[in-house]
TrEMBL record:
This is BioF2-like acetyltransferase domain-containing protein. It comes from the Bacteria. Pfam families: FemAB_like (PF04339). The lineage of its organism: Bacteria, Pseudomonadati, Pseudomonadota, Gammaproteobacteria, Alteromonadales. Transmembrane segments: none annotated.
Length: 382
């Protein structure tokens, strides 16, 4: 009996040994213990935020053999694979769509592992147990269902549970195609598209704004203060709140992940007016957070797209994920790629309707991806 699998849920990551968690999920930056713990310690997730930690742990005897970052969600903000229409349909029927169980990286639409499994275990056995536990937990919480957001394609194939739907969406990423520098990258563009990018960059250069790229170890308290001011100002203007992530979270990010942090700043007459915070891991650069104290045409494209591509080319990185949404990325050389989700709905009336919706969505997203490829700026054959 000591070798039997058992599962439990914990409401605080401090209940788990960091080394044990990272043994299962530490190969991806955004599922590492200290990244997820920073969200909890800074109260970015918790009861007040509507993201209640409810992580799933699987043990064989006393050994942790699987783990899943999991949250009880009281809304659908900060997810980026949208289900607002499902919530409205529930409301129209006088039903509660929330709470729901969600496995995701809060506020971050990054593809990666959602279930870490010890290499000594049979993945099919773990997935079957976890699927059963998630379904039972949704029932005990009277949750509308379960969602796994942005698992990678290989993991998605493991989720073959009955009555679980699949979803996909499009995001835009840059991939290194052998270019040595930004000029060679633009050399792949059609003439008109290349002129557009050059014009955007020249117009900004004419303003006299200067740029600097800093690694995490080089950042001072003044740099972090400037970034947070830019980040909160932009969120306040756009959404009426200072952002999902607090200054405390960014301080913890600096403490635990300095080697992964890249900050690009824009200065006007020596004063920082905009910042873009990136994280890098392996051969990939992730564009995450941006903000500006004043509106300058083209500044967002420069800090969040063009300088990110230049950085990848200089550092030998092969992939740049600038974040979700934004078809305007296509004209700037970011290619469409699929991202995925899966889950289940408990209500017997809504489950087949949502499954049908997801099937139709799957086809529509496939067609949209084909259309997006036609809009890429590259010359024929590139």
């Amino acid at each position: 009996m000591s070798d039997a699998l058992r599962a439990e849920f914990v409401s605080d990551l401090s209940a788990v040994d960091p080394a044990e968690w990272d043994r299962l999920l530490g190969h991806h930056l955004f599922t590492r213990y200290h990244y997820l713990a920073a969200l909890e310690q800074s109260h970015c997730v918790g009861e007040a935020s509507g993201w209640l930690p409810h992580h799933l742990l699987v043990y064989r005897g006393t050994t942790l053999v699987a783990a899943m970052p999991l949250y009880i969600k009281l809304h659908s903000y900060g997810e980026y694979l949208f289900d607002w229409s499902w919530a409205r349909a529930y409301e129209q029927r006088g039903l509660d769509y929330y709470p729901k169980l969600v496995s995701a990286i809060p506020f971050t639409a990054i593809t990666g592992p959602r279930l870490g499994i010890d290499r000594t275990q049979a993945p099919a056995d773990i997935h079957a147990l976890v699927g059963h536990c998630l379904t039972q937990r949704a029932e005990s919480l009277d949750a509308s269902g379960v969602q796994l957001l942005f698992p990678d394609g290989n993991e998605l194939k493991q989720w073959t549970l009955p009555d679980w739907y699949r979803r996909r969406d499009i995001r835009f990423q840059w991939h290194h195609r052998g270019e040595a520098n930004f000029s060679e990258f633009l050399g792949r563009f059609k003439s008109r598209k290349r002129k557009m990018v050059n014009k955007e960059r020249q117009r900004l250069a004419d303003t006299g704004i200067s740029f600097e790229t800093l690694s995490g170890h080089d950042l001072t308290d003044a740099h972090w203060h400037a970034f947070i001011q830019c980040y909160q100002t932009t969120y306040l203007k756009r959404s009426g709140h200072p952002g999902y992530l607090s200054p405390t979270f960014f301080r913890l990010l600096a403490q635990h992940f300095a080697e992964h942090v890249v900050l690009m700043v824009a200065r006007q007459q020596g004063t920082i007016i905009a910042c873009a915070l990136y994280l890098k891991e392996g051969d990939t650069l992730y564009g995450r957070y941006w903000g500006a104290l004043q509106a300058v045409e083209g500044l967002h494209f420069e800090l969040c797209y063009y300088r990110g591509i230049e950085y990848c080319l200089q550092q030998g990185l092969n992939r740049f994920d600038p974040g979700v949404q934004g078809e305007h990325k296509l004209a700037r050389g970011f290619e469409p790629v699929f991202s995925y989700g899966t889950g289940m709905i408990r209500h017997p009336d809504f489950a087949p309707a949502i499954a049908h919706f997801c099937q139709e969505e799957w086809l529509a997203v496939g067609q949209a991806e084909e259309q997006a490829r036609q809009a890429l700026p590259f010359r024929e054959g590139e």
